[in-house]
Amino acid sequence: MADVIRVSGLGKRYGSFTAVDGISFNVKEGEIFGLLGPNGAGKTTTIKMLTTLLPQTFGEATVSGFDIRKKQTDIRRIIGIIFQDPSLDDELTGRENLEFHAILYNIGKEKRDRKIGEVLKLVELEDKADEFVKNYSGGMKRRLEIGRGLINDPKVLFLDEPTVGLDPQTRRHIWEYIKRLNETHKTTLILTTHYIEEADYLCSRVAFVDHGKIVALDTPTALKNKLGGDVISVQLGKKSGDNFIKALGKLKWVKTMSHHDDFVDLTVEEGERKIPEVVILAREHSAEIASVSLHKPSLEDVFIHYTGKTIRDEAGSELEGMRARFRSRSMRR
Amino acid sequence: MDTNAIYVLWLRDIKRFIRARSRIVGVLMMPIIFLLGLGLGLGSLVNLGNGASYFEFIVPGIVGMTLLFTSIFTGSAVLWDRQFGFLKEILVTPNSRASIVVGRILGGGTTAVLQSILVVVIAIIVGFHMTLSIATLMVPVFMALIACTFIGLGLTLGSMINDFQGFQLVTSFFTMPLFFLSDSIFPASALPAAVRYIIYLNPLTYGVDGLRNALIGSGAFPIWLDFVAMLISSIVMVAIAVYAFNRTEVG
C-alpha cells in the first residue's frame, strides 16, 4: 500500500527546548497508526505540524504528497482532525456545529444535509442534534467532534488523544466508532494516545515517542515479541522430580528457562498453545503441578523496556484546570 | 476571500447575539446609566454656551462609547475562541486568515451597530431630539466605521495577548483614555491645546463628531472630514488586525 504520510527528520524547537527531535515515519493508506507516549513527549506537537497548525523548525513531511510547509490549503482540504482539547462552540447546537463546519469546507446545501444526517447517525446523536452543546455530556461532545471530523470525507483523520478524560464505557464506544470508521470508510487514521490499551486495541502500527524521539516502531504484536515472547510460569507440586525439569529444558520451543524456589519460568512463543504440552510432559514424568500461569508481555512492558519508565497517566493537565477557571469566568459575561 | 468562512462567522455572531438576551441587557446598562446620569442629571447643570442642550450633545458620545466598548470586547472574542479551542477548529479549515478576520468584523460589527441603534432608540424615548435630514443616512455608516476601527483594535489585542488577566488590564488601558480623550462627553474646544491635539489623534473623536453631524446636524468638523478620518482609521486598524492575526500561533 502507498504511503499517505511521509515524515523525515521532522522537528520543532521552542527557544532552547526541543519538543520534537527529528522524527521519521511513514503511514500507509488505510492503516491506524498510533503515536504512543507520555504527556509532553511531543505527540501533539507532531500532529500540529502535520495538520499545518504549527510550522516546523526543521525536517520535512508530506501528507498525501503535499508538503506541509508549502501546500497547507491542499492538506487542510483532505484532512480531518479531532483535537485533544474541546473545540466546539458551546452556545450553538450540535447540528449547527456540524453545519458551520461543513460550510467552512465549502460543502453545498444538499450534500451538507446528507452528510450531517449520516454523521449524526454514526455517532448516535440524532435525537440530541438540536440541543445546545453546553448541555452535552463529555462523551457526547467527543462523539460530536469525531462526527464533525468526518463531515468533509477526510482522506486522513488525525485524532489527538481521542478518549482522554472519558469514562471506560464511553472510551470503549469511541474505540468501536474509530474501528468501524476505518473498516467501512477506509479512512487512514493517525492517533496519539498515552493509553496503552488504546494503542494495543486500535493500532495496526505503533510508534513509541519519548522526549521528542521515536524509540520503537512496529505492529503491537511484533513489539511484544521483541521482548522474547510469553512467559509460562509453572509452580511445582510436592511430588515432582528433577526429570521433569530436565525434560522441560530439553524442549526445543523453550527459549529460556529459569528455576527459583518451586517455580519454573519458561519463555516461549504463543504460550497458550504450549501449556497443554507442559501438562502432558508432567504426566509422562509423574510430576505434580500446583499451578500454571501465562504472562503475555503488554505494550507497557515493551515501553518500559525501551524507555526505562512507565507511561505516567497524569490526571488533568495544567491547561484543563485553566480552561475550567476561564469557563466559569466567562459565565459572567 | 473565502465568502463561506465570512458568512459562517457572521452567522455565528448573529445567532449568539440573538440568543444571549441577558448579555444585551448587561451591555445596555452602562449607556443607560450614562444617558440618565450624565445626560439628564448632570446635563441640567451644564451650559455649553451656544444655547445647545448638553443632553443633545452627549447622546452621540454615549452611542460612540457603546460602540467603543462592545467593539473592543467583540474583537477580543478571538481570545475566548482560542481558550475554548474553537479557534483551532476554524484555523484547520481551508480558509484564509484574512477572511476569518473579515467574518469576525462583519459579525461583531453587525451586533455592535444593532446595540448602538438600541441606545439611540432608548435616548429618543427619554427625550432626545434627532434632527432628520439627508445626513441621518450617515448614522449607520458612522456606527459601522467606529465598530470596524475598534473591533480591529480588539482583534489585534486578542491576537497578541494570551491570558485573560493581562487582556483585561490592557483593554482598560485603551478604552478609558480612548473614551475620555475624545470629544464624547465634553467639547474638545474647551480644553488646553496640548490635550486638544491628543483628542484630534483619536479616531473616536471623528466617529462621535460624525454621529453628531448625522444625528443632531451640528459638529465640530464638516461631516466629510469625519467620514474620511473614520474610513482611514478603519482601513488601518483592519490591516493591523489581519497582520496580528496572521502571526498568532495556535496554543
Task: Please summarize what this structure is.
The complex is a heterodimer of chains A (333) and B (251). Chain A has twelve helices and 14 strands.
Written overview of the protein:
- The complex is a heterodimer of chains A (333) and B (251).
- Chain A has 333 residues and is of the alpha/beta class.
- Chain A folds into 2 domains: 3-223, P-loop containing nucleotide triphosphate hydrolases (Rossmann fold, 3-Layer(aba) Sandwich), CATH 3.40.50.300; 228-296, Alpha-Beta Plaits.
- Chain A has helices at residues 43-50, 72-78, 94-104, 109-122, 138-150, 168-185, 196-202, 220-225, 242-250, 271-284, 299-307, 318-330, and strands at residues 3-14, 17-28, 32-36, 58-63, 66-67, 79-82, 156-160, 188-193, 205-210, 213-218, 230-236, 256-260, 263-268, 289-295.
- In chain A, the strands form 3 sheets. In chain A, strands 6-7-8-3-9-10 form a 6-stranded mixed beta sheet, with helices on both faces. In chain A, strands 2-1-4-5 form a 4-stranded antiparallel beta sheet, with helices on one face. In chain A, strands 12-13-11-14 form a 4-stranded antiparallel beta sheet, with helices on one face.
- In chain A, a hairpin with a 2-residue loop joins strand 4 and strand 5 (66-67).
- In chain A, helix 3 (94-104) packs across helix 4.
- The longest helix of chain A is centred in the middle third of the chain and has 18 residues, at 168-185.
- Residues 313-322 and 324-333 of chain A have low confidence and may be disordered.
- Chain B is mainly α.
- The longest helix of chain B is centred in the middle third of the chain and has 29 residues, at 97-125.
- Chain B has helices spanning 3-19, 21-41, 54-75, 77-83, 86-91, 97-125, 138-160, 164-180, 193-201, 203-216, 223-247.
- Chain B contains 11 helices and no strands.
- The mean pLDDT of chain B is 88.
- Chain B has one domain.
- Chain B is globular.
- The interface between A and B is medium-sized, with 34 and 29 residues.
